[in-house]
């Protein structure tokens, strides 16, 4: 049996990425216990982590199919939070400032971080 442990992202500006994830999700920074590198770790909760690895000279190219998803009980409140922060979001097909309801009834929105990684937030709890 396996459980999810962490996701690692290659980022151009680790400070900007940490600030973004703390602003949007209120993730707390935790100690990088693996090395003395400039990689910074954030706690997602429940022992899960986001590792932000500085790679200022590497280009990141992704599409929306390459994303990670987080769930919240109050998607409407989170969307209001995104609006307050002026974070652009869209539905799966790219309609700006619109959420999407999947066939199974789960609502979701997508947005990008400073390195253009896609993040989905949904209400699948």
Automatic annotation (TrEMBL):
Coiled coil: none annotated. It holds the Pfam family Glyoxalase. Residues 3-124 form the VOC domain. InterPro entries: Glyas_Bleomycin-R_OHBP_Dase, Glyas_Fos-R_dOase_dom, VOC_core. It comes from the Bacteria. PANTHER family: F18B13.24 PROTEIN, PTHR46142. This is VOC family protein. The lineage of its organism: Bacteria, Pseudomonadati, Bacteroidota, Flavobacteriia, Flavobacteriales.
């Amino acid at each position: 049996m396996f459980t999810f442990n962490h996701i690692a992202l290659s980022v151009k500006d680790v400070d900007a990425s940490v600030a973004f994830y703390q602003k949007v999700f209120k993730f707390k920074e935790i100690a990088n216990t693996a090395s003395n590198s400039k990689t910074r770790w954030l706690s997602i909760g429940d022992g899960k982590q986001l590792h932000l690895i500085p790679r200022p000279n590497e280009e990141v190219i992704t599409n929306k199919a390459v994303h990670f998803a987080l769930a919240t009980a109050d998607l409407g409140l989170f969307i209001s939070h995104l609006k307050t922060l002026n974070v652009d979001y869209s539905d799966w097909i790219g309609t700006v400032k619109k959420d999407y309801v999947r066939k199974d009834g789960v609502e979701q929105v997508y947005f990008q971080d400073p390195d253009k990684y896609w993040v989905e937030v949904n209400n699948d709890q």
